[in-house]
Amino acid sequence: MPSDKKRTARVWPVLRAYSKAALVYPKSLSIAVIATVGIEAAAVVAPLYLRQFIDLLSGGTPSSGTVQALFVVLIIFAAVNFVGWIGQRVRMLSIGRMEAKVMADLYENAFGYLLGHAHEFFISNFTGTLTRRVTRYARSFEQVLDNLLLNFFPAFVFAIGVIGVLSARSVLLGAGLFVWTVAFVYIQFRMVLWRQPLRSARTEEDSKVTGFLSDTVLNHSTITTFAAAPYEKMRFRDAVARWYAATKRAWDADAWVYGVQGLFAIGIEVALLAGAVLLWEQGVVTVGDFVLIQIYILGLMNRIWGIGRNMRQLYDAFADATEMLDIIDTSHAIEDVAGAQPLHVGEGAIVFDHVHFEYHANQAVLLDFDLSIPPHEKVALVGSSGAGKSTITKLLLRLYDVTSGAIRIDGQNIAGVTQESLRAAIAFVPQEPMLFHRSLMDNIRYGRQGATDEEVFEAARQAHCDEFISRYPEGFETMVGERGVKLSGGERQRVAIARAILKNAPILVLDEATSSLDSESESLIQDAFTRLMQGKTVIAIAHRLSTVMKMDRIIVMEAGAVVLSGSHRELLAQESNLYKKLWEIQAGGFMSAN
Length: 594
Hints:
Rossmann fold; 2 domains; ABC transporter transmembrane region fold; alpha/beta; single chain; 6-stranded mixed beta sheet; 18 helices; 4-stranded antiparallel beta sheet
């Protein structure tokens, strides 16, 4: 998916996507189209009766017959306008309801597809930019439909009617108006194409400003602690300066477009009225025809004058929708294979079979990696940073797909099962838990969305969350802030542990799950882990070796390979090795194995 490249509006793909969404509601769309035709037909027909009314008035001295005829014409004129008024109300209701439905569908579809993207996609894009693309995609539909159905289509219908009526009065007037209309629309179209790259550049700079704002707001604490506010203000000033330059170029182009429009408007009005004078001199047109021509010119100008502005709005909408369409057109990096079946976990045996993985080409993290974990075994992965420990858990959760080889759970290749069932079978406690800006109750319940309040309370108690939750006046209804910033690191980890307890999945993965806990809290949580691990297959990553002493087996990794395997006692009993070295560093040479 393009990220830093300049985007141009993809008109036809956007129209196809929006048409498909709108045709889900054919009844509302048909009513809106029919109502529009009725509105414009009334706008063309009503002035004909006004012309007749003016001709009757200018025909001579008043008489009873003339007055009666005037009232008849006036009643018909009012009736035709009333039909147009009814059409307006019908169109507004049908379009409003359809747009709301379609926009809701677009929101859901865009959100659903966005969530389907892989872990790498989200860590490579600004959060604020992604959220804005979703909202723009849905909201741009309103602009597109409004411009097509309320501006372009009505202008086309009205122009056809007006040209037809004037041609019936004089071929010269009709032909002149037709040529001018085609030329005016074409020139506006060419000017919009000239100007659109400037609009796209402005949209891109606007997205960059939004992304910058999102990034800095999310990292406010980092900015504060590094006293970097002046630096961030300078960078933001540069981003705004680029936005200003792009906006100025786009708006300067607007001024030229409006200038050209004004000249065309003056030209057609003078030309048609001059032609009408010549025809009046020949007795071809009447005084009422002058009124008719003036009304038609004003009506057509009002519609066509807006076409240039509408084209720009339409292209802006296309450009905004294109940003999300780029995401929708980008295939999901991790997808269920055709015919994928749910994962069935009976025992929980895990096998890494000749797994090769590289984040980037020629940068292998795991190379021919083999590891077998029997059912219910508690395995710890230790080693220096960059050894590949966290990569193993990411591959197990299918946040990434292996480059080659296979990972099997109870004999089932995880590449052939549904992602949802795979992740439902694994409870994961990350090193840095991310919480929703929701209540503590909602965040803990996320482990199992259908859990009762009592089950949430029990999970919180086992994870020792109730100890800090009880201090909040609102208790479990306390809002935790964006990403849980209102909680300490240890409190966030306890919430993540409570989620895992509530989920009660057959496979448990702990990635430095106690790294943010103090020693007292850690000892309490270890008791909870002891109960949580019972009957489960466990993979635990830990840098603090004191947390893995009681694991069934400790796997020591280095450079993406297993270099040692055994229990804590067995590894310490061996000759000098990496684990023994790490233990002595952390224990300070005075701690001994139990």
